[in-house]
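Structural prep section.
Before we set up the soaks we want a predicted structure of the protein with NAP in place, mainly to decide which crystallisation condition to try first. Input record follows.
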Amino acid sequence: MTLPLTQRLRLLILGGTADASALAATLAADAPVDAVLSFAGRTDNPKLPPIPWRIGGFGGVDGLINYLRDEKIDRVVDATHPFAAQMSRHAVIACNAAGVPLLALERAPWRPVAGDRWIEVDDLPQAADALGAQPRRVFLGIGRQNLDIFAAYPQHAYLVRLVDPPRGPLPLPNVELVVARGPFDLAGDRAMLEAHRTEIVVAKNAGGDAAVAKITAARELGLPVVMVRRPAVPARRTVATVAEVLAWLGHDAAPEKRGV
Ligand code: NAP
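Run finished without errors. Recording the tokens verbatim:
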């Protein structure tokens, strides 16, 4: 898809996921639009994309509306993680207010298959509760932001995997740390769980390929998985592949409202 320069769309991609990076790489190769990829700034050394990028929050809904207006953004693709519900909610409200078409790029959630032993819960406090009173060896593949929830359950021995080395001590009394950046593979995750003698895995239902190895490894090892369901976000148009985003960019998606 190649648009004449005068018609080039200005696209904001809300990122922080492998899908957002894949979209950026595809757009860099073909450059049908002027795109900027936005990161929250949670990781110390984000893998920088081959397109323009920015880092940091917008300042809530009003800040995002101002950004869309100041940067003359024509379209927004929300490729944030399914658990980044606040950013997704802000994107729906701000795009609606600014009359900017919004598309979410989101993988379908994982579904249990034969051999899986999932305990599905609605949030991380429920996940911590589901580990039970007896001490267990637990793999926490949930990022660093909510580890303190598990501090109230000090009877367990935790293995925590983080993208960056933590800036201070982890809030868990009995913890081993692995610092590694995905995507992860099955052999590596299986070996990690075996070496730690993990008895139960806690995971967010991210969907997609980049983080699924731990779920497959748990199935192969017969381990239960406490699977946190996705948080609710307001309804928005959603696709699952970069190709579908490109198709959307190639078609008219007239803003519902203009002039904010
Ligand atoms: P969140 O709770 O939904 O968002 C909190 C605030 O962070 C937002 O209100 C916004 O600040 C800012 N923010 C989030 N994503 C942003 C982006 N792409 N660009 C600019 N600002 C952004 O988000 P979160 O769960 O903390 O996730 C933060 C980032 O990590 C996201 O980019 C997400 O894709 C990525 N990530 C999250 C998870 C997870 O499990 N939550 C896992 C992997 C990757 P303002 O209100 O100031 O605009």
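Observations: Residues 104 and 236 are 7 Å apart (CA to CA).
Flagged for discussion at group meeting.
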